[in-house]
Amino acid sequence: MEHPKSISARKAVQTTTGARGAQSLDRAATLLILVGRAGPSGARLADLIVQTDLTKPTVHRMLTALVRAGLLDQDPQTRRYHLGPEIYVLGTLASARFGLHPVSMRALTRLSQESGDSAFLSVAHDVYSICLHREDGPYPIKVQSLEAGDRHPLGVGAGSLALLSALPDREVDQIIAANADILSEKYPNYAGPALPRLVSETRRNGYAFNPGLMLSGSWAIGMAIRGEDGRPIGALSIGAIEGRLDAKRRHELKTLLRREADWIAMRLHQLRQGAARSRGR
């Protein structure tokens, strides 16, 4: 049996360790907030030290850990800290109560129920696309290629390809060039001349098509949601096993996707008009 003094000592160590862990989390959260408040210009290490009243080694160590996790980013030239890409992903996922996401939920439900398969909502961020939501239909076999929060280079996947193809040629070329290395390394089916060809096919067909280029047997069809200026604000896609996306069914799903993409665009326009009228009162 463990001696009572040993038990007390162990509990004291656990309590101390827990307190230190909570303190570290508090400090990390404070640094994230301070960097966010610094705005586009970013935050200097010296300023963060003053604002937190912590030692330079402590602040630097925590900032390095946050950069490593993708929650912060450090500009190599200015050495200033900015909010990182993972903060954007988390914020986008947390936006389920606002904007495009909640408006799209009814459309995603209709798509998943009418098709029987999985419906997805994606948005573009810089040269990547992010899946905001996945809504599964009643068909028992599900594709496993995409989940909420997943991020891929623009053009990789049906919804992502729809987003890329809806952009002007100059932007498409710039994005493909920026992602050239990662496409060659991790997405060989999209590397070289493949992605420009897929963009051309998407524009010609009126929808994006992924015949298992990311994951064998996992096919998908996608369509961009366009804003009032004609630019893509998001994309809807439907994923299914290969046998459920032949040419005839793709034509049927294209009609469903167009209907729901137009409905989302119209609904967003109505909400903006309503908000404008309210501000004018």
From TrEMBL:
<dbReference type="GO" id="GO:0003700">
    <property type="term" value="F:DNA-binding transcription factor activity"/>
</dbReference>
<dbReference type="Pfam" id="PF01614">
    <property type="entry name" value="IclR_C"/>
</dbReference>
<dbReference type="Pfam" id="PF09339">
    <property type="entry name" value="HTH_IclR"/>
</dbReference>
<dbReference type="GO" id="GO:0045892">
    <property type="term" value="P:negative regulation of DNA-templated transcription"/>
</dbReference>
<feature type="domain" description="HTH iclR-type">
    <location>
        <begin position="22"/>
        <end position="85"/>
    </location>
</feature>
<dbReference type="InterPro" id="IPR036388">
    <property type="entry name" value="WH-like_DNA-bd_sf"/>
</dbReference>
<keyword id="KW-0238">DNA-binding</keyword>
<dbReference type="InterPro" id="IPR036390">
    <property type="entry name" value="WH_DNA-bd_sf"/>
</dbReference>
<dbReference type="InterPro" id="IPR029016">
    <property type="entry name" value="GAF-like_dom_sf"/>
</dbReference>
<dbReference type="GO" id="GO:0003677">
    <property type="term" value="F:DNA binding"/>
</dbReference>
<dbReference type="InterPro" id="IPR014757">
    <property type="entry name" value="Tscrpt_reg_IclR_C"/>
</dbReference>
<dbReference type="InterPro" id="IPR050707">
    <property type="entry name" value="HTH_MetabolicPath_Reg"/>
</dbReference>
<protein>
    <submittedName>
        <fullName>IclR family transcriptional regulator</fullName>
    </submittedName>
</protein>
<keyword id="KW-0804">Transcription</keyword>
<feature type="domain" description="IclR-ED">
    <location>
        <begin position="86"/>
        <end position="270"/>
    </location>
</feature>
<keyword id="KW-0805">Transcription regulation</keyword>
<dbReference type="InterPro" id="IPR005471">
    <property type="entry name" value="Tscrpt_reg_IclR_N"/>
</dbReference>
<feature type="region of interest" description="Disordered">
    <location>
        <begin position="1"/>
        <end position="20"/>
    </location>
</feature>
